[in-house]
Amino acid sequence: MQRLSDIALIAQVVTLGSERAFGQLVRAHQEAVRRFLLRLTTGDEMRADDLAQETFIRAWQGLSSFRQLAGFETWLLRIAYRVFLDDERKEKAHPTFNPETSSNSPKGDPNTLSLEKGQEAMNDEGQTETFSLHYDLDQALSTLSETERTCVVLQCVQGQSIREIAQIMSLPENTVKSHLLRGKKNLASYLRRNGYC
Amino acid sequence: MNMNHNMNNDEVLLSKFFAEHHEPIADNGFTERVLAALPERENACLAETMRLRRWSLWLNVFGIVAGLGLLIYLGVFGMAWDGLMTFFNRIYVGVITFDFESLLVDLMLFLHRLPELLPSTSQLLVISATTLLLSYEVVKKLYITAQNENWFA
């Protein structure tokens, strides 16, 4: 049903250039794209939203090349992954200082689950709990390599099949399988080491 | 056996972990920000349609010229012209002399000769072969364009 509705909206955007129809597409898929990028950037919300915005702008510009061989969400995630890789390349070429991510980044101490950041924000109990849960998730994911993390996020968070992951990452299915196997094994042993069971 | 057991345990552990960490992400004005940042988009579909129309126009012109040339070469026009001239001449004579019987006979004669004015089997074969050749060229050109412009991606 969602697929049919997507196709109808895409047809309106491609033939009439309807921004209203594109807005509906963004509203329907923003969560998947932002969640994917949020996990890839290990919890950097601002960067994830910027990349998500760039993803939708590229989708708007290239929508006429969408040929429905893949579902629309898979196509969007493919663009999002490329946008993320481009940004990573730029970041590596010209590193920028970000006080928020540098002091409290999950990448800071990858060996143990840390609640430091959560403890700093104890004003609202509910908020603190959510915050530390996210922090744990991103810290756990940050122990994986970039490719393993992407595969695990796409399967476990986004619910994509191995075939779709292969399409998104432009990798052979067997390579995806081995990244998934290794990534899941590493993540599970990391969680066990830190008392999660 | 033990490896499979461990893998299943990992799957259960990860499913539980990700389920616990799943929560909805509200739009919070994200869509509006995206729409506000949208650049002018060239309507690529329209451009493709226009390109195909231009192609189609040139193809039609070429087809008509080639068809006319072929008909002239086969002498169909000459035969048709002769037949029409004879027919109208007879009508003219028939009207002048008010001989409606001969007019009727001429009409029947013309209808009887009509199949002779149409292309013969060999001529139809030549026309079909030309059409097939042209169609093949068009399909080939479209396929090359599609590959170059990545239509199937």
Structure keywords:
heterodimer, A: 197 residues, mainly alpha, Rna Polymerase Sigma Factor, Chain: A, 0% strand, B: 153 residues, elongated
How would you concisely characterize the structure shown here?
The complex is a heterodimer of chains A (197) and B (153). By secondary structure, chain A is mainly α.
Would you mind describing this structure in some detail?
The complex is a heterodimer of chains A (197) and B (153). With 197 residues, chain A is an all-alpha fold. Chain A has a domain at 1-96: Orthogonal Bundle (Rna Polymerase Sigma Factor, Chain: A). Chain A is 74% helix and 0% strand. The radius of gyration of chain A is 18 Å and the shape is globular. Chain B is an all-alpha fold and 153 residues long. Helices cover 82% and strands 0% of the residues of chain B. In chain B, helix 3 (44-74) packs antiparallel against helix 6 (121-148) and helix 4 (76-97) packs antiparallel against helix 5 (100-117). The A-B interface holds A 14-15, 17, 19, 22-23, 26-27, 30-31, 34-35, 38, 49, 52-53, 56-57, 60-61, 64-65, 67, 69, 130, 133-134, 136-137, 140, 152, 156-157, 181, 184-185, 187-188, 191-192, 196-197 and B 7, 9-11, 13-15, 17-18, 20-25, 27, 30-31, 33-35, 37-39, 41, 43-45, 48, 150-153.
Percent strand of chain A: under 5%
Q: Could you report the average pLDDT of chain B, rounded to the nearest whole number? A: 75
Rg of chain B, rounded, reads 35 Å
Fraction of residues in H or I helices of chain B: over 70%
Distance between the termini of chain B: 42 Å
Order of helices and strands of chain B: HHHHHH
**How much of the polypeptide of chain B forms β-strand, as a percent range?**
under 5%
Please give the largest β-sheet of chain B.
none
Oligomer: heterodimer
Compressed to H and E, one letter per element, the order of chain A equals HHHHHHHHHH
Terminus-to-terminus distance of chain A: 38 Å
What is the fold-level CATH name, i.e. the topology of the domain at 1-96 in chain A? Rna Polymerase Sigma Factor, Chain: A
